[in-house]
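User: Show me a protein chain along with its predicted structure.
Assistant: Here is one chain, sequence first, then structure tokens.
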Amino acid sequence: MRLFVFGMSHRSAPVSLRESFAVAPDEMPDVLRALVGEPGISEAMLLSTCNRVEAYVVPDEEGQAREALTRVLGTRRGLDLRAVEAATYASSGREAVHHLLRVASSLDSMVVGEPQILGQVKEAAHAARSAGTVGPLLGRLLDRTFATAKSVRTRTGIGEHVVSIGSVAVDLARRIFKDLEDSRVLLVGAGKMGEATARSLKSAGAERVYVANRSYERAVKLAEKHGWRARALTELEELFAEVDIVITSTGATRPIVDAALVRRVIPRRKYRPLFIVDIAVPRDVAPEVGDIDTIYLYNVDDLEGVSRDAMMRREKEAAAAEALVRDELETLERWYTELAVQPTLAAIRQRAQGLAHAEVERTLSKRLAHLTEADRDAVTRMTEALVAKLLHPTMTALRSHASDAAATELLAIARLLHGVDEDHREEDA
């Protein structure tokens, strides 16, 4: 199958490199168009989340495609290509399709079973379609990918227990503070990740929660939904002086919390410990904040161990999900191999039906002109059915042997026997 994936994830690269590689929503259309403008790439989609940055492309030639992806995604950001090479992975054909199916089904996530990734893949597909970089092949693969991911969620129990980065962050906070009812919490960011984290905080019993966001109106909406208070993002310093826990997940392209801000609030906190979980990529909190005494800073990479317990409980369901993914992979592979025979099948069918139609029309107009319209229709339908039955063995044989080593030779013989040339034009009879 003509699919090539190139990227990095929490499995291959630290967050410090992933955030440099990330593609923001507002630059996504330009990057996508730049990719399909490169030699060797005809279709493209980019998936950029807190745990992965991946490009899925339909390549004309794999080597060219990889060079183009490295050039556009690496050089564009001034990254050391050798460092990028060491932290990236790539696969093609069946392996690439398998990877896409597993990613969308949340089998490759840090938190196996988390539901956010499917929505993120759908958003990536929408962005690529809007940019005009999705064609028939990638479009078909994406449609089947979404159907498979839905089947995984409805037919297995993989989505049970802790299922999101936000919920893992809350779980980590509960391990340290135990009772969140008495803890003061600041949630920075009211986007989708913030909303998911808010639900987990509410389920954990958190009552004294502030919500801060770049859009104050959105912060108000999320805070009122859970009976909390909204605060302006400009009040971060004051809020850091008050709360016990900070969970941040904004879409900022650079840190919104630096070491200077944190150092200013430490005396006001009377050196009480501050627990910060930064689940944003790019990171919201400068990494040097973690070096400050009394500050305990965690990022998305630190959450993997916390999620491992829940993952072990879902191993059995994950195995069932993997089986569904493999079944779909086989179906897609059969579909793709049959693509090669479709032009020949269509040409054979078109020629046979055309000859039959011409003979029926000639006979009805000369020898059977006395027939009623109903009888004429019956003769036409009978002829079409006869043609279909006569062609059925040929059609079945070509489809069933589409992936065989001798498929090319078989197609050539079929075209010769049915009077269709290599360009699928009807030969002179």
